[in-house]
Amino acid sequence: MSWLLWSLLSAFMAACTALLAKKGVAHVEPNLATAIRTSVVVVMAWAVALSFGRPHEVRTLDWRTWAFLSASGIATGLSWLCYFRALTLGPVSKVAPMDKLSVVFVLLLAAPLLGERLTTGKVVGGLLLTAGAVVLAVF
């Protein structure tokens, strides 16, 4: 499958995640909800990696790979903690669009951190995404 199909599946699963998480945090403290969700993700991720991946490669990873993947895991955990807190405080129809502003942050940070070009199309798309998220969250 192409990156586009995987991306669309990811977006659909993220939508399911938001809806299910909103229902899930209704009667539980958000940090506990995040811990439960994360535990399920850990088990599922290892099951998939062991079943379909190449788990033996873990022994060959260098320290930089470990550092970046670990930092990414920390950022993911912090993102989820913030997301679940936001879901307990606001409607999912407003929280989810604001969460998607991560795309705008990626566009802004990919240029200086990864050397990706910030094109006119990316700037316009980022502005449109920002406008759309704000409209969905405010109105």
* Helix fraction bin: over 70%
The count of helical stretches stands at 6
Order of helices and strands: HHHHHH
Number of strands: 0
End-to-end separation: 37 Å
Note the main sheet: none
Shape: globular
Would you identify the regions where 5 or more consecutive residues have pLDDT less than 50?
none
The structural class is: mainly alpha
Radius of gyration, taken over Cα atoms and rounded to an integer in Å? 17 Å
Mean of pLDDT = 94
Amount of beta strand: under 5%
Can you walk me through this structure?
This protein is mostly helical. The chain has six helices and no strands. Helix 2 (30-52) packs across helix 3 (63-89) and helix 4 (92-99) runs antiparallel to helix 6. The longest helix has 27 residues, at 63-89. It starts with a helix and ends with a helix. The model has no long low-confidence stretch (mean pLDDT 94).
Detail the topology: elements first, then pairings.
Blueprint lengths: L2 H22 L5 H23 L10 H27 L2 H8 L2 H13 L5 H19 L1
Helix pairs in contact: 2-3, 4-6
Summary keywords:
mainly alpha, 139 residues
Describe the structure in brief.
The chain is mostly helical and 139 residues long.
